[in-house]
Design goal:
2 domains, 2 helices, mainly beta, single chain, about 170 residues
Amino acid sequence: MKKLIDENGRLFGKISFIDVLVVLAVAAILLVSLTKNDVVEQISGSVQTTPVEYTVIAKNIRVTNAALLREGDYIWLENGVPAGKITGVRTEVATTLSQIADGRYVIGKIESKVDAFVTILADCSYSNGRYYADRTFELNVNQEQKYVTKYEAFTASITEIVPESAR
């Protein structure tokens, strides 16, 4: 009777045990990758787009930096993905919660700082209830992202997403 694994480490004297393990590992990886169903659906090149206006807020930025955010300028994500075109910029005095001498908390103004509300118009694809700017950047409320314009770079959070049909 032949041994299952011989002295050279071969199954039935013919196939290397390590080769069998490698083939099983590759098969397991392929099986998992083919059956994984939470992968974002790929969007084909011929997908229709719809204009979507979304608003981001950049908190506590310098007044001079906010002045560099101009209506009509194009805007990108930090990694170069187009995020749309600026259609409006509104600023408010930046505030913070501060404790005063008697222990109470009050909302105080931050000197020379503003919160900039930037409205961006982007042609977005729509898939599974989600909007995608440039078919890759998923728009999500409260999503913090680094944005870049020709003149300014800033971090902001999306506060509102309004598709053309809702305007």
